[in-house]
Design goal:
alpha+beta; about 30% strand; three-stranded antiparallel β-sheet; eight-stranded antiparallel β-sheet; elongated; about 25% helix
Length: about 240
């Protein structure tokens, strides 16, 4: 293959990866707290070879970025649904260590521990939050009250450098402890959920654009392949 074909091929590969990301975003439009993904692109060998010595035009995926922007708030009136306005993440204890999430769809376990749907305990400043009786009240600053009065305060944190937060699954993040600090003034909303921040219309438009780009690259490769075959055929006569 000549250089032009390789360039079209590299662009096709990046479009395939972009398609995976957009499809994942659309599949999680209904996941509370889900944050959309974006790809960053770079030119192959851009950092290793001086511009005058490289062909240029070879594209590669440089990395994935997470859009941590606020999702729309939806009122549910469920006392176990919590949302965060502005910055911050809830802290949950998983089998792999502490993880951070904006998915505020919690439930209560048989021992009174507030937990995610997967059973991971919601952490307060003094450990897992446990409630008693039928009363659950969560104040804007994260203070939790139950039938026996105040039972703790939610641990709400933020990332010093959001780029160092690594997505894990659909709505969890992990990060080094040094990158996680307590949020000074959290704003917790009880009875609401933060929806995904993915716009489905934008996602569908991206799917159409990706499909058109991919078809263009395929046509280009077929044309260049045909030109190469013709050149070889004429050269052997």
């Amino acid at each position: 293959m000549d250089a032009a074909t390789y360039k079209a091929l590299s662009a096709s590969v990046t479009q395939m990866r972009r398609l995976e990301i957009v499809a994942q975003d659309l599949a999680n439009v209904g996941t509370p707290g889900y944050k959309g993904q974006r790809l960053a692109f770079s030119e192959v060998l851009a950092e290793r070879v001086p511009p005058d010595n490289r062909a240029g035009g070879f594209v590669a995926v440089a990395g994935e970025r997470t859009n941590l922007g606020q999702g729309e708030m939806q009122r549910t009136a469920d006392p176990f649904h919590l949302a965060l306005e502005g910055d911050g993440f809830f802290v949950v204890a998983t089998a792999r260590g502490e993880r951070y999430t904006r998915n505020g769809s919690f439930t209560v376990k048989s021992d009174g521990t507030l937990a995610t749907a997967q059973g991971d305990a919601l952490l307060g400043e003094a450990g897992p939050i446990r409630v008693t009786g039928a009363v659950l009240e969560v104040l804007a600053d994260g203070t939790v009250r139950s039938s026996e009065g105040e039972v703790g305060r939610l641990r709400i944190v933020r990332f010093v450098d959001p780029r160092q937060a690594i997505k894990e699954g659909n709505s969890l993040f992990r990060s080094a402890a040094a990158n996680v600090v307590q949020l000074a003034e959290p704003r917790v909303v009880q009875g609401s959920l933060e929806l995904s921040n993915v716009n489905p219309v934008d996602g569908m438009v991206s799917l159409i654009a990706i499909n058109r780009n991919f078809e263009s690259y395929q046509r280009a490769m077929k044309l260049m392949d045909g030109a190469t075959e013709k050149m070889i055929s004429e050269g052997t006569r």
